[in-house]
Design goal:
Strand order of the largest sheet: 1-2-5
Structural class: alpha+beta
Number of helices: 3
Helix content: 40-55%
Strand content: 25-35%
Oligomer: single chain
Amino acid sequence: MNKSELIDGIASNAGLTKTDAGKALDAFVSSVTRSLKKGNEVRLVGFGTFAVSKRAATTGRNPRTGETIKIKARKQAKFKAGKTLQDSVN
């Protein structure tokens, strides 16, 4: 499913126009992004949790040359499915 298909699904399920559903989806994504940038997690009971984890700096290897490279430490967004979502998938 891509973004336009998701917007169509939201519009039909919520009785919204496609424009309003697109605005709602964009607002949701931007709210989650802002919260994660601040270091907070977003919990949607039954659906899942969006969180940020820290990855330590590591060394890697360039596959073409075999040269060792340094990979900087960074933050990574993660999603953990909630029990209700996980049960519905299985």
